[in-house]
Every structure is written in structure tokens, then in C-alpha cells.
Amino acid sequence: MPFATPSCGALLGEQGRGVIRFRGIPYATAQRFGQPIPAPPWAGTRDATRHGPIPPQPQSRLRAAMGDIDRPQDEDCLTLTLATPAIDGARRPVLVFLHGGAYWTGAGSLDWYDGGTLAAENGCVVVGVNYRLGALGFLAHPDVSPGNLGIADMVTALRWVATHIASFGGDPDNVTVIGQSAGAHAIMVLLTETASDGLFHRAVLMSTPPSLATKTTQAAAQDAVFLADKLGTTPGGLAQVPVPGLIDAGLQRARTNARFADATPPFIPVSDAFADPDSFIAAAARAAASRGIALIIGTTREEMHAFFAPDPAMATPDPALVAATFARLAGDAAAIEAYRARRPGATTRDLLGDLVTDDMFLRPSIGLADAVTASGGRVHLYQFDWAAPANPFMACHCIDLPFLFGNFEAWTDARMLAGADPAQLATLSAAFRAALAAFARDGDPTSPGLRWPPYRAPSRITMAYGAVIRQLGDLAGAGWRLAPHTRTEHSA
């Protein structure tokens, strides 16, 4: 049986398919609304062959595309999942995955994010992190919590990696954080915090919404008051409310904040310093450049279609709301015609999906890349274009995740993969994983046969992953902002 002996205590793992897995490793404990406390060492050998509970959460908004989550939930959830090719002194690159889910759902310990294939085939150590979600992780009020406890959980997990990963064959001086959606947004927050200095050396941001600025302390305090009112208590009394009540009140808060064609989550990191997008993007970019942290930033071609396609309100949206949304996000309601021209035969829902994809993901991601390069940093861009033939969600939010992990057997309930050719899945996944693993090794995602140069003006080259893997670019430079889907093609 495989054993590891980090200083926190001995662990019994599970070996199979060329990799050793450890599950349910406690990295911290935390009382309700309290800071994480590093887990104390344990005596004897701990059985790490089974997952612990996932953080308390409601159903995912993306279950129609990805499948649903059915796991025991508990506030005692601050654990790690780890996969390594061997327990030795090889000092392999380390990949720490921060899951998405709008800071509200998900867990690093889900089978979707099993790092076994990535570790075995690419010679790296993969770590998944469970962190607190929703009100339990991001509520902020003077009588409740300082806020950003989910971010504090991530920092504590990264400190655990720095201290113990060598005992699992990993290199603590070569750590890459990979975040998807909220996890990618969290990496931007981590970049701005000195507490994360030295804990990671490269970063991959998958489908991050850079223009989602942090929440002000005043707005966060209003959330706490709302929850308390709904639950018949005071903000300070939220510490005694059972978890189901907090989740239900959080759902009510989400409904009161909801507006047409908007995917902003109800609970996000709190900071008055970065409560506008420009300041947030500029601060994260400067920090990445000054700390020498190279980035990969990626988006999918139709991010928002996974949110809009299952929504009955989007089947035949109100024309007045559509016009108002285009006026608000594109500056002119007539901009819908430009979007219609570039997607022949599109429904209005498709056009709204394109608009919000551009506004929330693509344009601000390009803005973040421009800010990084302007600050002297290094960044590589990709767009994931692949879509399964029977997939109603197109190249949607989360579509790149199965390709990162290469564990398609865990995604059998994901309609976003419906009708896919297994051979194409395997080869595209291998190419995507090879590029990200190469980046984790030395900061250059170029892999055999596929050169991936840094993003910079005037070419602004982006790797496109789809049925054909190729380089895209916009030689006009400013054209990225004016028409972000208009790109010229370069040979790979």
C-alpha cells in the first residue's frame, strides 16, 4: 500500500493507473465565520483513500450542461485531494486547482477534477482544494465575519503545499495555480494580496471574469442584513443559523439581485480598494508582472450559452429587455445587428450569449492580458472553440475542464459532451494538457508540433483549441476591443 510521510502525519493512499491518489487530507479547520486554522499533526497513519464532505452549497446553475453534484456536505470540509506519479524526491511541477462555481458551488474533490490522468501522463503533482463557499466563505459584516474566508482558505492550502508537497514528489519552488471561473477570479484576488507571496510561481486563468470587481464592504454588510432579516435574527445571530437556512436565504438574496442576462454571483470577495473593474485588473496585472508570475488566460467561444440555454426566460426574451441590454453593454441597441451579421441564423438568445460572453469574459480577459504586457509581464492566451455535435450549449463555460483533466469517464452525465467522438476527445485533451503541463514546467506552453508564443501587440496571437488547433491573431491591435470575434488566422 502506498504511504506518504509529510510532517503533518502519515497518510495511506491508493495506487492505480500509474498514479497514487490521496483524498480527504485536512489542511485546516475553521469554526463558523472564523479564519482557517492550519490542521494540527495527527498520530499514526490516516486513511486518505476516501473523500471527505464537500462545502455546503445549493445546486449548480450549470448542472444542465455539466451534470449534477451528489456528495455529502459539511462545514468541516477544508481538505485537499492529491495525485502524484510517485512518492520520491523527484521534485515534479505542482499544479494546484481552484474550482469554479460562482463562489457558491463545486469542490476540488469532485471526480470531475480528479488529477490522476494529468499527473500520470504529464509528470506532475496535482492538488485540488476545497474552500468555503457562499455566505460561509464570503459574507462580510463587522458583527459576522471579516469576509474573504474562502480566499483565506486558499492561502492556507497553498501554505500546506509549500510545506508538505516535497513529501509527495512535488517541487514547492515550482507551483502553478490553475483556476476556472470563480477559481480564476480568485487567482486575481490572490495576486493582489501579499499573503500569497512566494506560494505560487505561475498561473492559469480559465474563463475568468476580470471585470467582476470586488464587492464593497458596505454592499457586503447589506447582504448580511438581508440574510439576517429573512432568517429572523441579527447579523451576529447568523453564526447560530443551521446551514440549510443560510443556503435558502442566500438563494433569496440571489433572486433579489438578479437582472436580465446577468450572471453576477451573490457572494464574491470583498475589497473597497478594487471595487471598480479598472483598478482590479490593473492591480492584478501589476502584481503578476512585479512578482514574475507568467500567466495563461483562456476563454471559451460561447461562455454564456451554458447559462442561457436552460433558462426558459431566454427562449423568447422580451425585445425591450434585449434592446436595453445591448444599449447597456455595447453602447447602442443597434449593435445587435453587428452580432447578428457574424452569427448567421442565430436566435436572439444566441446573440445575447455572444454579447455577454464578450462583455463578461472575452473583452476583459484581453484587457487583463494587455495590462500584464504593459506592466512588463508575460502572458499567453487561448480560446477553446470545440463543441460536441449534439451539445446544445456550444463551446460553453466549463467545456475546457474535461480536456484539462482527461478523465472523460467522470463526465458521462455532461450534456455539453453529447455526441463527441472519443478519439477526438482523447487527442485534443492530450494536446491541451501537454501545453499546460509544459507551462507548469518552465513557463512556456509550447508543446511538440504546436508553438504557442506569448501574447503581445501588434499580433496578439491566441491559441485556438478545437477540431483544428491553430493560432489566431488580430494584426489591427485595437480591433480586439472593437470587434473581438474578428481575428486573422496564423499557421501553428
**Major sheet: arrangement of strands:** 3-4-8-10-9-11-12-13-14-15-16-17
CATH topology: Rossmann fold
Tell me, briefly, the overall form: globular
Q: What are the low-pLDDT stretches, counting only 5+ consecutive residues below 50? A: 475-492
Descriptors:
twelve-stranded mixed sheet; 492 residues; alpha/beta; disordered C terminus; Rossmann fold; 15 helices; three-stranded mixed sheet
Give a short summary of the structure.
This protein has 492 residues and is of the alpha/beta class.
What does this structure look like?
There is one protein chain. With 492 residues, the chain is α/β, with parallel strands linked by helices. It has a single domain (3-490), classed as Rossmann fold (3-Layer(aba) Sandwich), CATH 3.40.50.1820. It has 15 helices and 17 strands. It has helices at residues 63-66, 116-122, 134-138, 149-164, 182-191, 217-230, 243-257, 277-290, 305-308, 319-330, 335-342, 348-374, 401-405, 422-442, 479-482; strands spanning 3-4, 10-12, 14-16, 19-26, 28-29, 37-38, 45-47, 79-84, 92-98, 125-129, 170-180, 202-206, 294-300, 379-384, 462-465, 470-473, 488-490. The strands form three sheets. A twelve-stranded mixed sheet has the order 3-4-8-10-9-11-12-13-14-15-16-17, with helices on both faces. A three-stranded mixed sheet has the order 1-2-7, with no helix packed on it. Strands 5-6 form a two-stranded antiparallel ribbon. Strand 3 and strand 4 form a beta hairpin. Helix 6 (217-230) packs across helix 7 (243-257), helix 8 (277-290) crosses helix 12 (348-374) and helix 10 packs parallel to helix 12. The termini are far apart. Residues 475-492 have low confidence and may be disordered.
